[in-house]
Design brief:
Largest sheet: 5 strands, parallel
Mean pLDDT: 93
Shape: elongated
Strand order of the largest sheet: 2-1-6-5-7
Bound molecules: 6-chloroguanine
Length: 248
């Protein structure tokens, strides 16, 4: 996976993407990350990249020209026109399913806006995806870009090592993860649930599924309703299948 991040604050991206699993993935060559300073593409001799909004109002608007020239430079470098994700609270909300879709791309470009926004005309010209990370307002697109790069990177083969698998966690089947315990078996006056010490793998699997379902029902009733609906569709399907097979 190759990421380009178009930003006025490349040091913020570098700081957030150099540690832990992502830092390791970059060193191992599983992830390539290039930050591109939009300011390097302005033709203004004072390095200006923003101006007052037409029609008046508060704040400044990022100019079209440096943003456009910045994206074109990336396209020239790689020889095609990759998906360009504009981070904005006006985008569609980022979810695991979109992370999976983006993880299949060879190259992704993120455009981080600041000020009151970016001139609409350059957005119309180059943006392929408008994405938000949730219903709250942040000061810029850098943190959302890092959130997305993290969620996407861990789906790239080889980024997670064997003991960090991406298969069994929250959302992979639409339920939150079950609770985890480690040694000692007793601490803070609390015991590890007995079933986990039993070595009975089928009972452990069932217990964890129950815990996941109950936790999701309590904490995320919206996800639980979707999951329950899918369970019922599944059993409908099974009934239909049985109907077909019993007659023959
Ligand atoms: Cl992508 N950008 C900004 N500035 N604020 C946000 C966001 C993005 N997603 C949620 N809030």
């Amino acid at each position: 996976m190759r990421y380009y991040v178009m930003t006025l604050f490349p040091e913020m991206i570098e700081a957030g993407m150099s540690s832990s699993i992502l830092g390791r993935a970059r060193k191992e060559g599983k992830i390539d990350l290039k930050t591109v300073n939009i300011r390097d593409y302005t033709l203004d001799r004072h390095g200006r990249v923003d101006d007052y909004p037409y029609g008046g109002g508060a704040g400044m608007v990022m100019e079209a020209e440096p943003v456009y020239r910045c994206y074109e430079a990336i396209c020239s470098e790689i020889g095609h026109r990759p998906r360009l994700v504009y981070l904005t609270p006006q985008g569609s909300v980022f979810e695991q399913r979109l992370a999976e879709e983006f993880a299949a791309e060879e190259t992704l470009v993120f455009l981080c806006g600041h000020y009151e926004g970016v001139d609409e005309r350059v957005l119309e010209e180059i943006v392929t995806d408008y994405v938000s990370i949730g219903d709250y307002v942040l000061t810029g697109g850098e943190l959302p870009a890092m959130v997305m790069m993290d969620a996407i990177a861990r789906l790239v083969p080889g980024v997670l090592h064997n003991d960090e698998s991406a298969g069994e966690e929250s959302f992979s089947d639409g339920l939150l993860e079950y609770p985890q315990y480690t040694r000692p078996a007793q601490i803070l006056g609390r015991e590890v649930p007995e079933v986990l010490l039993s070595g009975h793998h089928e009972n452990i699997r069932r217990w964890r599924l129950e815990q996941s379902a109950e936790r999701t029902r309590q904490r995320r009733p919206d996800l639980y309703a979707d999951w329950e609906e899918r369970q019922n569709e599944g059993s409908q399907g099974a009934k239909t299948e049985r109907k077909f097979t019993t007659g023959t």
